[in-house]
Every structure is written in C-alpha cells, then in structure tokens.
Specification:
There is one protein chain. The protein is built from five helices and 16 strands. With about 280 residues, the protein is α/β, with parallel strands linked by helices. It folds into two domains: about 30 residues; about 250 residues, 4-Layer Sandwich (Metallo-beta-lactamase, Chain A). An eight-stranded mixed sheet has the order 8-9-10-11-12-13-16-14, covered by helices on one side. The longest helix is centred in the first third of the chain and has 24 residues. It is globular.
C-alpha cells in the first residue's frame, strides 16, 4: 500500500519535470518575456565598418546586416543565424565570410536581380522566433534608382526595441516611406555622400525619422578607408552634447528601458576590443 502511495505521489513531480524539459528544449515553446523583463533585456549592436552591423539579442540570436569583405576593416564575426541585405552590391552582400555559409532560407535580400540589369524589391514582414523583421522599398540615389538602382531599408524588432538600417539610402524619405518605417529607437544611417546621403541629407532624414535613442552613422570615410567623405559635415548638424564618440569600441548595448533627453549620435569604432566576438 505504501509503495502504491509513493508511486502516486511521485507521478505529479515527474510530469512537472518533463514539462519543464520539453519547454526548454523545444523551439517555439520558450515562455515569452514579461514586459518588465523585455524592457531590461540587452540588445548588443556591433559595427564592423562600412554598413556592416551585427545585432545579438538577449536570447543569443545573431543577425548580420550588409556584410562586406573589405580587407581594411579586418575579419568580422564568423557565425550568424541570419543575414539581411539591403541591395546587391559587393560591399553589402558578402555572405561567404561566414562559417558555415548561411542557407538560402536564412538570407533575406531586400533587392533581387531576376536577370542581369533588372532589379526588383522583395518585401518581407516575418518573425524569426522573438525577432520581427520587415523592409521598406527605397532607392540608392535621388533619381528613382536610375543611377545606382534600388535599396531596401530594414527594420528589426527585438527585445522591445526597433532598429532601422537604411542601407545605401540615396534620398530623403517620402511621407509614405516614413510612415511605412514607423517609430524607431535606433537608426543606422549612411552619411559619407558620393554613393549615398551626404551629411546634410542624412541630418534631414534623422529629422524625418526622429529616433528615440540612438543615431549610428555608417558608410563614411575612416582612417585607412577614406573613399568616402568623413563624418564632420553630418556631426555639424548636432550639438556637441548630443554626440558621443566611442572610437575605442565597436559595441553599443541598448535596452528598451533606456531613456535619453534627446537622441544621441554615437560614433563607434569598427575594431573590436574583444576578439571573442569574431569567433
């Protein structure tokens, strides 16, 4: 009789334990964060030069945007979970730098070329686990793509934050494009002119988007790779108190709970202080 009672007493414990194991090990069954937990969850952003950024969510999902293989910037991260590409130019779409090379299903190309000389936008609005990704059609120049073709703006929602990567945007946004992008917390914006927005145009796009937290300049000339204009013109449109130069690191950690009196321009370095991120 006591053996039978013991068996019945243990059964609920075993059932509960199995439920926990199944929840932890089965993708898609991980409990969602509470609003408070999501607000405190860190999203790590790293710049690897040019327009190449990686986002690492609090759950360890690694997202690459516009990877390049420019030798002057050194070797970037080796492994990612999926890749977003704004347009098919060779300093933005080098998926071969990753090991292993991402599968087609893990590469999101905002502009495709069904045949040589013809470009088309490919629009997404998908969820990858706790990450939502979508894109907005734009152009690489101010002539509706006649000079340099099409461009795609990527919007990533993760850890309660909205990150906007403008790719090689070449014009100010239309009202329709601005509304499609929507409210953003962080914007990554090209400022180096020649092939994209220059400093004055980029400052106007920042005014259009009004990011809540951070403005991350990209695609501009740096020592050792000065084919583009430097950041000086763009920075001249902001007060010194709103500019944060962090050239000794390529990393910014952001939380949805962060608050700033005004959006802050953060000028990152492209060299990592910790080589572990490149493994």
């Amino acid at each position: 009789m006591s053996s039978l009672c013991c068996r019945y007493a243990i059964a609920p414990f075993v059932t509960s334990l199995l439920a926990v194991v199944v929840t932890v090990l089965t993708p898609g069954l991980i409990p969602s964060m509470t609003q408070q937990e999501a607000a405190a969850a860190p999203l790590t952003i790293r710049w690897h030069g040019q327009s190449f950024f990686t986002l690492v969510t609090s759950r360890g999902i690694r997202i690459a945007i516009d990877p390049h293989a420019i030798a002057q910037f050194g070797r970037g991260p080796r492994t990612v979970d999926f890749v977003l590409i704004s347009h098919p130019h060779n300093d933005h779409d080098q998926i071969g730098i990753f090991e292993p090379v991402p599968k087609d299903a893990d590469v999101y190309r905002g502009v495709i070329e069904p045949r040589p000389g013809r470009q088309e936008w490919k629009l997404y609005d998908e969820k990858r686990g706790a990450v939502r990704l979508r894109n907005v059609a734009t152009f690489h120049d101010a002539l509706n793509g006649l000079q340099r073709g099409k461009n795609s703006v990527w919007i990533v929602e993760a850890d309660g934050l909205v990150v906007c990567h403008l790719g090689d945007l070449g014009h100010e946004l239309s009202d329709e494009q601005r509304k499609a992008i929507g409210p953003v917390d962080i914007v990554m914006i090209p400022i180096g002119g020649i092939y994209t927005l220059n400093g004055e145009q980029a400052a106007e796009v920042v005014r259009q988007l009004r990011p809540r937290l951070y403005i991350l300049p990209m695609h501009y000339g740096v020592p050792g790779y000065d084919d583009l204009l430097g950041p000086e013109e763009f920075l001249s449109y902001f007060k010194n108190d709103d500019i944060d130069k962090r050239l000794d690191t390529n990393e910014l950690v952001v939380r949805a709970s962060d608050k700033l009196p005004r959006p802050r321009v953060v000028l990152l370095g492209w060299k990592s202080r910790d080589s572990k991120e490149d493994k």
